Amino acid sequence: MFDAAVAAADPLQRVAEFLPRPPPPPGRVVVVGAGKASARMAQAVEQAWDGPLSGLVVTRYGHEAPCSHVEIVPAAHPVPDAAGEHTARRILELVSGLGVDDLVLALFSGGGSALLTLPAPGITLADKQAITTALLRSGASIGTMNLVRKHLSAIKGGRLAAAAFPAATVGLLISDVPGDDPADIASGPTVPQASTPAQALAVLAAHGVPVPPAVRAHLERAPGCPGADDPRMVRVTNHVIAASQQSLQAAAALARRAGVTPVILSDSLEGEAREVGIMLAGIARQVRRHRQPAPAPCVLLSGGETTVTVRGTGRGGRNVELLLALALALRGVPQVHAIACDTDGVDGIEEVAGALVGPDTLERAERLGVSAAAALANNDGHGFFAALGDQVVTGPTLTNVNDFRAVLIT
Q: Are 85 and 118 in contact (CB under 8 A)?
């Protein structure tokens, strides 16, 4: 089911149908983008586009894809680095000065917020790195993190499309955010925004994030992002070409073919990972005891993005933290198995997609002298599942529709 979910979001299967139809524009076609799927998206554009094009996209280290006309540059994620900053500046320069006959194809996916890093005037890369690190450890949701990022940026929050005007901009977006709001995907470089710098300051205060003086000064005086009434946004069209719901439906179809009833709980579950794990365990128990919301065999499917408030010193990440909490809540209930993975192949900062849980998980851990409770307290899900040999390692999948979770009751 996880493989089916990832395949359903493959850019090579999703991009072509959303490209502008012939005839091609009389001017230049410039491809730009950022995200863990952006290189694969550029590859898909090259395969489907009939005519000359050129461009530049930035992706995560190890997530490159072969392209002939679009330059692919790797950079760091989730904490930005100088390579991302340099490439973002080049992308902004590339779209600036285009004419009314030109077309920008903007390819954005999850990870784009960190990768497309161009600090607003007066803010340094070090400022953005510190704030990103603090927000990642604070348990802030992806939506609130991206709200802050776009107001500290010279390129996100609609500013890329504004710089490209009067050229037409077509944004192709792969959503990794709950709710699939285009304004939140990669912090919306081609999307008008409604949030304000004051809201960004409030987010930082609510999560106890130290605010450097230059950042505070910028947020107190910044005019904000281009809004829907900005005349530079009139030639922008955005399409969400892949999202969690499509991947969940692909997994559900596979389950039905296997004689298992799929129950899609939500494509946008959020909250503390361990609390979501406890909730999913409770629903699995309801199936076992009361045949609700469906009799076994059934599978509980969900997507979205949980968060982790880091208090320990372990290796993360959110999917394995969820699974640890689920296993502890089930305490070996028979006939319940689970998987939780990030569809990009990276759970947290580890090159591991996620892990598997079964009725014997806690028993096997005890035999190895490994404590699930201690691992959960130390935010060390990756360490726990590595010891058991139950990690799911895919390598870069070159897409990203966020987390995939399946709890199978046989």
A: yes
What is the phi/psi pair of residue 13, to 5°? -95, -15
The CATH number fitting domain 245-409, selected from 3.40.50.11270, 3.30.2420.10, 1.10.8.420, 3.40.1480.10: 3.40.1480.10
Interhelix angle 142-151/197-206, rounded to 10 degrees, is 130
Q: What angle do CA 351, 352, 358 make, to 5 degrees?
A: 170
User: H or E segment at 337?
Assistant: strand 336-342
Which tens digits make up the pLDDT trace of 211-252? 999 999 999 998 899 999 999 999 999 999 999 999 999 999
Over residues 52-80, mean pLDDT:
96
Structure tokens at 161: 């499309």
Reduce the DSSP state of residue 243 to 3 states and report it: coil
State both tokens at 321. Answer: 């933290």
3-state secondary structure of 153: strand
Cis before 11 (ω within 30): no
110 torsion bin: left (phi>0), alpha (psi -120 to 50), beta (else):
beta
The C-alpha atoms of residue 336 and residue 295 are separated, in whole angstroms, by: 13
**Residue 136's pLDDT is what?**
87
**Is the previous residue joined to 26 through a cis bond, with omega within 30 degrees of 0?**
no
Q: Is the separation of the CB atoms in 406 and 116 below 8 Å?
A: no
Tell me the pLDDT tens digit for each residue of 268-296: 999 999 999 999 999 999 999 999 999 99
Q: How many residues does the chain have?
A: 410
Q: What's the burial of 12, exposed, middle or buried (CB within 10 Å: 0-12/13-18/19+)?
A: middle
Residue with token string 């679009």: 70
CA distances from 26 to 15, 95, 164 (A): 22, 16, 16
Sheet containing 403-409: order of strands: 261-269, 298-304, 403-409, 336-342, 354-357, 391-392
CATH 2.60.40.1640 assigned to 2-242: no
Over residues 338-370, the pLDDT tens digits come to 999 999 999 988 899 999 999 999 999 999 999
Burial group, residue 391, by CB count within 10 angstroms (0-12, 13-18, 19+): buried
